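// run 5 | inverse folding | seed 20
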């Protein structure tokens, strides 16, 4: 009888230690489930997961980046920019955050700042054809045809077929 009580006490201690250690959810798992929710268009669920990640680890670049991306998908551009800003503050070499912050700024018709973000992203990854294309479109909106054609040509050289088509129309 004593052995049984002792076993039960040990089992209860193990359960309580396990429950205590699970007070914090694994942030990598939350990132994964948040991304799964985003892909299923459960945007609020994804935001909730990424927010928990950020609350548990305020230096988690991915939490800010992915939440910013979901805000972008929801056309909540100021919120997206805020999260991309924080991701960049934590990792100044985060190409995707610069690129997507540029996209959010573009959507807000802040073409000059979008071009700045695209340019910095390209300084980190000069083989990003989509970034060249997006930069060219922002430049077009500012009437900077010289740079439009140059960036479209670079995008086309990197294999962007849409850029090659646009060149035929704009850069004669």
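// decoded
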């Amino acid at each position: 009888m004593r052995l049984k009580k002792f076993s039960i006490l040990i089992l209860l201690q193990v359960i309580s230690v396990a429950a205590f250690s699970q007070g914090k959810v694994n942030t990598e798992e939350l990132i994964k489930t948040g991304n799964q929710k985003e892909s299923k268009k459960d945007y609020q669920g994804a935001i909730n997961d990424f927010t928990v990640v950020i609350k548990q680890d305020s230096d988690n670049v991915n939490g800010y980046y992915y939440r910013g991306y979901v805000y972008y998908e929801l056309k909540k551009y100021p919120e997206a920019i805020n999260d991309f800003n924080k991701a960049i503050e934590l990792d100044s070499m985060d190409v995707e955050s610069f690129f997507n912050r540029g996209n959010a700024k573009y959507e807000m018709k802040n073409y000059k700042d979008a071009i700045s973000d695209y340019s910095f992203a390209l300084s980190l990854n000069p083989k990003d054809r989509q970034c060249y294309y997006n930069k060219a479109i922002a430049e077009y909106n500012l009437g900077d045809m010289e740079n439009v054609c140059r960036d479209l040509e670079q995008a086309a050289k990197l294999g962007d077929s849409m850029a090659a088509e646009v060149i035929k129309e704009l850069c004669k």
